[in-house]
Specification:
It is found in: Cell membrane. By secondary structure, this protein is an alpha/beta fold. The chain is built from 24 helices and 18 strands. A hairpin with a 4-residue loop joins strand 14 and strand 15.
Length: about 700
C-alpha cells in the first residue's frame, strides 16, 4: 500500500495538520488583540495562500514521519538480515556503553541519553525479531506511540502559537527562539499564568482521540506494508515535493506584503516564521520595545559619547604620540569573577591569574554584556551594546563592520583570530574573516602540535604554543600585530591533559577546567617572556561571559561580573580600577592607553577620559539592561520597563575594591531620566545596525 493513499497514516496526519492550521487562523483572526479589519482580497490571501503555505511547510516538517514509515517493513527480520542487524545493534550498544565515544567527549547527560536510546532500540528490535507471532501487535503499539507523538506536537504547536499571539500579537519570532534557551523561566511563567492541569489534560485527550482514529484507519496499511518498489516510487515523489517546497515557501513568504501587519502575520505559517527567526537571529526593536523619536534618542546619545547627527561617529583625538605596541587580547571561556581569589574564591583554582592581576591594570567592576561566547566576542570586537536577538556574530549581516580589527589594520597592524576549536562553530570564522581577520584555529595545527584534544578542540596549552609560533612569525614581518585568542578548555566536558594540575581530568569538573586554563596561561606567559616581542606587547585578559547566568532576577548582576586586566610590564602601572565599566569599553580604553587617534563608531569609551560617565550594559536575548547611578533599568518586549535599586551587600571577607555585590530591589516609581538613557542606547544601536551605519 502506498504512503500517499487515503488509507495511509501520512494522509490523515496531513489533513489533521491543515485542519489545525485553519482553525488556528480563525481563532487568531477573531482574537481581541487582532484590532484590524480585512478586505476581501486580504481575507483571500490569509486563507488561500495561508493554506498553500501550510501544505508545503508540512511537507518539510513531515520528513521524520516519512523516514519512520519508510523503515517499517517485515523483510528486515528475515534470515539472515534480522540476526545481522540485531548483532550490529548489540555491538553498537556495547561500544557506546563500554567505549570512549564522542558522546563521552562531550560529557553531561549525553552518554546516558545515547545508551538509553540505543538500548531501547536494540530491545524492541529483538522483540520484533524473536516473537514473529506477536510482531503485528507490537508494531501496532509502537506505531500508536509514534503517531501520538506526531499528533501531540501538532496540537501543542497550535496551542503555543495561540498563547504567543495572545502575548505579542504576531506569529513566532526570535522571542520564541529565546524561549527554547530559557526553558526554566518559560515553564515557570506558564505554570503561574495558565490553568496547566486542565490545559495539558485537554491537549492529551485530543491527541489520544486523534491518534486512536488514525491508528484505526491505518490498520489496513499496517497489515499490508508498502513493497520496496512502492517505497522507492513514493520516496521519489516525496523528494521532488520536498525540493519544490524548499523553492516555493520563500516565494510565498514574499507575498506577505500587505500594509496591514495583522494580515501578513495571519497569512504566514508559524513554523516557517520560527525558522526565519532562528536563521536571521534578530528581533525588531521598534516593534517590541519602548521607543522615542530618533532625533531625541541620538541627542541623548550625544550627551553620553559625543557623536554627531544620527550616527555614533566621532573623532577620538590624543594629544600624545601614538604607541603602536603589539596587542594580545585573550578572552577566557566562561570565566566568572568569583573564580578568582580577589572575589572571595577559596579553592585556589586561579593561582596564576590572581598573581597576574596584581601586576596589571585591574578592572574590578566590569560587566559582561551577555551570557554567551558570541556576545563577549561581539563586545570586544564591535564595542557595541547587546541588541535584541542573537549576537551580530551569528547574524546574516555580520561582515564589514567597524571593529577593533579594522581600526588596528588602518594603523598597519597584522590582525588575527586564534581559536583552539573549529572556528566554524558559532559562526566565528564567517564573522571574523568577514571583518578582515586571518583565522588560526584547530585546522591550522599540524599533528605534532597537538598533544591533547576533545570535542571542543585542542587544549589551551597546545593553542598557547601555537600562538607563540604565530607571533614569532608576525614579528619577522616588521609590523605590529593584534592577536585575539579565544580559549576553549574551560568548557564541558572539562577534560585536559593528565598530570598538569592537582585536579584529575577524569573528574570532568568546572574547577578542573578553570585551573587547567589558568595553568595553560601561566605556561603561555612564561614562554612569551622569552620572546623578543614581549617587552613591546600589551596583554588584555578578559572573560567572554560568566559560567552561569541563572539567578533570582531577570538580570542578576553577579552573573555578569567578569575579571579584566591589562598587563604590560614597564609600560602600564599596576593598579585597581573600581569604576563601573562595560565589556564594550575595554578595547577603546586600551586604544586610549596607546594614545591612538582615530575616527570611531564605537559605543565603547575610554574610561580614563574625563567625559566618561560610568555605566554598563547587560542583557539576554530579550531583556536589555543598563546599570547606572546605582540602578538597573531593564527594557523588554511588549514595551515593558522595569527598574531596580542596587543595594550594596557587604562581605567582610572581601577587600574594599571588591565590595561589588548588590541586592536588586524593585522600584515602583521609574526614574524617567534613566529610562530614556536606556532606550536611547539600545534604540540607536538597533537603528544603526539595521541601516548598516556601523559598517566600516
Amino acid at each position: 500500500m502506498s504512503f500517499i493513499s487515503k488509507k495511509s497514516p501520512l494522509y490523515f496526519i496531513t489533513i489533521f495538520y491543515l485542519l489545525c492550521s485553519f482553525i488556528l487562523r480563525i481563532v487568531l483572526l477573531f482574537h481581541p488583540i487582532t484590532q484590524s479589519k480585512f478586505s476581501f482580497f486580504e481575507s483571500l490571501k490569509i486563507f488561500g495562500l495561508g493554506f498553500i503555505s501550510d501544505f508545503f511547510v508540512f511537507i518539510i516538517a513531515s520528513a521524520f514521519l516519512w523516514l519512520y514509515l519508510l523503515f517499517l517493513s517485515n523483510s528486515k527480520y528475515y534470515k539472515p538480515w534480522g540476526h545481522i542487524i540485531f548483532l550490529l545493534l548489540l555491538s553498537l550498544l556495547a561500544y557506546v556503553y563500554f567505549g570512549n565515544t564522542i558522546l563521552n567527549e562531550y560529557g553531561g547527560s549525553l552518554p546516558e541519553i545515547g545508551i538509553t536510546f540505543i538500548g531501547i532500540k536494540t530491545v524492541l528490535f529483538g522483540l520484533l525479531l524473536f516473537f514473529p507471532k506477536q510482531r503485528f501487535l507490537l508494531r501496532k503499539i509502537l506505531f500508536s506511540i509514534a503517531i501520538f507523538i506526531f499528533v501531540l506536537v501538532i496540537v501543542q504547536n497550535s496551542i503555543s502559537e495561540f498563547f504567543f499571539w495572545n502575548e505579542f500579537g504576531v506569529r513566532y519570532n526570535f522571542i520564541a527562539v529565546d524561549y527554547l534557551v530559557y526553558t526554566n523561566t518559560v515553564i515557570g511563567n506558564i505554570m503561574e499564568s495558565y490553568p496547566v492541569v486542565p490545559l495539558f489534560s485537554a491537549v492529551g485527550i485530543i491527541s489520544a482521540l486523534v491518534t486512536y482514529f488514525i491508528v484505526k484507519k491505518s490498520n489496513a496499511f499496517l497489515k499490508n506494508l508498502p513493497t520496496l518498489k512502492q517505497k522507492l516510487s513514493d520516496l521519489t515523489l516525496y523528494a521532488l515535493a520536498f525540493l519544490f517546497s524548499l523553492f516555493i515557501i520563500p516565494k510565498l513568504s514574499k507575498l506577505e506584503n500587505s500594509n496591514n501587519i495583522f494580515a501578513n502575520e495571519l497569512q504566514a505559517n508559524g513554523l516557517y516564521k520560527f525558522f526565519l527567526a532562528f536563521k536571521n537571529s534578530e528581533l525588531e526593536y521598534d516593534k517590541f520595545y519602548k521607543t522615542m523619536p530618533n532625533n531625541e534618542a541620538f541627542a541623548l546619545l550625544q550627551q553620553q559619547i559625543g557623536n554627531t547627527n544620527l550616527t555614533s561617529e566621532r573623532f577620538i583625538k590624543s594629544d600624545s604620540i601614538e604607541n603602536k605596541k603589539n596587542i594580545v587580547l585573550i578572552t577566557i571561556e566562561s570565566f566568572s569573577a568569583d573564580f578568582m581569589k580577589h572575589y572571595g574564591n577559596e579553592q585556589n583554582i586561579t593561582p596564576f591569574l590572581d598573581e597576574l592581576a596584581e601586576q596589571s591594570l585591574f578592572f574590578t567592576n566590569l560587566y559582561a554584556v551577555g551570557n554567551r561566547t558570541v556576545r563577549g566576542l561581539e563586545a570586544v570586537t564591535l564595542c557595541l551594546p547587546p541588541t535584541a536577538g542573537e549576537s551580530v556574530v551569528k547574524r546574516v549581516d555580520n561582515k564589514n563592520k567597524f571593529s577593533t580589527g579594522f581600526v588596528l589594520k588602518q594603523k598597519g597592524y597584522q590582525v588575527k583570530y586564534l581559536y583552539g576549536g573549529d572556528a566554524y562553530f558559532d559562526n566565528m570564522e564567517d564573522f571574523f574573516s568577514g571583518n578582515g581577520y586571518d583565522i588560526v584555529d584547530k585546522k591550522s595545527l599540524l599533528p605534532n602540535e597537538i598533544t591533547f584534544s576533545n570535542i571542543w578542540g585542542v587544549c589551551d596549552e597546545d593553542m598557547a604554543n601555537k600562538a607563540i609560533k604565530v607571533m614569532n612569525e608576525e614579528t619577522k614581518q616588521g609590523k605590529p600585530f593584534f592577536n585575539h585568542w579565544m580559549t576553549v578548555s574551560n568548557h564541558r566536558p572539562f577534560t585536559y591533559p593528565e598530570g598538569k594540575i592537582d585536579i584529575d581530568s577524569h573528574s570532568k569538573s568546572r574547577e578542573g577546567g578553570v585551573k587547567y586554563t589558568d595553568y595553560a596561561l601561566r605556561k603561555f606567559f612564561e614562554n612569551a617572556q622569552k620572546q623578543p616581542w614581549f617587552a613591546n606587547t600589551v596583554f588584555v585578559i578578559v572573560a567572554d561571559h560568566c559560567a552561569s547566568s541563572s539567578g533570582k532576577t531577570e538580570l542578576p548582576l553577579d552573573k555578569y561580573r567578569i575579571p579584566a586586566f591589562v598587563y604590560a610590564p614597564n609600560f602600564i602601572k599596576p593598579q585597581k580600577v573600581n569604576t563601573l565599566v562595560s565589556q564594550i569599553d575595554l578595547m577603546p580604553t586600551v586604544f586610549g592607553l596607546l594614545n591612538f587617534s582615530y575616527q570611531s563608531k564605537f559605543y565603547g569609551q575610554d574610561i580614563f577620559k574625563p567625559t566618561y560617565s560610568p555605566r554598563a550594559f547587560i542583557a539576554t536575548y530579550q531583556d536589555l539592561g543598563l546599570i547606572k547611578n546605582n540602578k538597573l533599568t531593564i527594557i523588554s518586549p511588549v514595551k515593558k520597563v522595569k527598574q531596580f535599586e542596587l543595594i550594596k551587600q557587604t562581605n567582610n571577607k572581601l577587600g574594599a575594591d571588591f565590595q561589588l555585590y548588590y541586592e536588586e530591589k524593585p522600584l515602583e516609581k521609574i526614574d524617567a531620566s534613566l529610562e530614556k538613557s536606556t532606550i536611547s542606547f539600545y534604540q540607536t544601536a538597533s537603528y544603526l545596525l539595521k541601516n548598516k551605519k556601523l559598517n566600516k
